[in-house]
Structures are given as structure tokens and as C-alpha cells.
Amino acid sequence: MLLICTFLNGNTKAENPKSADSIIECFYQTKSKELVRLCRILLYTRGLVDSDPEDIVQKVAMKAWEKRYRLMYHPNLMGWCVDACKKECDALLRMKKCQRRKLGLPVPLADEMLLDKQQDAIMRWLNKMEAKEGRK
Q: Taking the complete model, does pTM exceed 0.85, yes or no?
């Protein structure tokens, strides 16, 4: 178990394919609290305060378990998990929006999301203007 935990810190690489199970188990035991904290922040910033971040981490752990033999040689397992958590949070947000639309309820947008859309629109406008000025 010590060898596998040092593998998670990036010091060694495991060569035994049977250790893929142990790598995912050890990773889940050592890093699940950090991933739950990350998911809680992601859900809060997306306005999904009624969702449980532990469920998302469980889904990500199940995906990691399904892909454990490929992930065993992944250079950044934590990065993969963070990316998977972000994707799960976005999928949950899309699902909640679709459910609210089907029920005829208004879809609330968080202030940060509105601000991001405004900033994106401003940046697109500035890029267009710079492109037009560059052509002249």
C-alpha cells in the first residue's frame, strides 16, 4: 500500500496491472475530501446548492474504476479527477436546467454566469473591432 501511495505522489510508477485496483482505492481514500471540497465550490459557483458534492465524487470514482487500467499510467491522476468533477458539475447543471424548462419554471442564472456572458460578449466585440482596424 505504501508503494501505491508514493505512486500517487508521482515518485514511482507501478508496473503490476493488478495494482490498478489498489491505486484507485488509495487515491479515493487519500484525495476524496479534497475532491468533495472542490465539487462543493463548483456547485456553489454554478448555483446548485441543493446538490450533494459527495455524489459527484462517487460518480467520478466509478468512472475512474472503470478506466483504472488506462489511468494507472496517466501522468496526472489528480488532474484527471478534477477535470472529471468539473464535467460532472456542468452535466448536472445542464440536467437541472432541462428539468426546469420542461416543468415550465424559470431557469435562474447565477450572477457570475451573467457576468461571464457579458465579459465574453465584450471580448468578442473588442476582437471584432481590432480585426476591423487591422484590415484598414
A: no
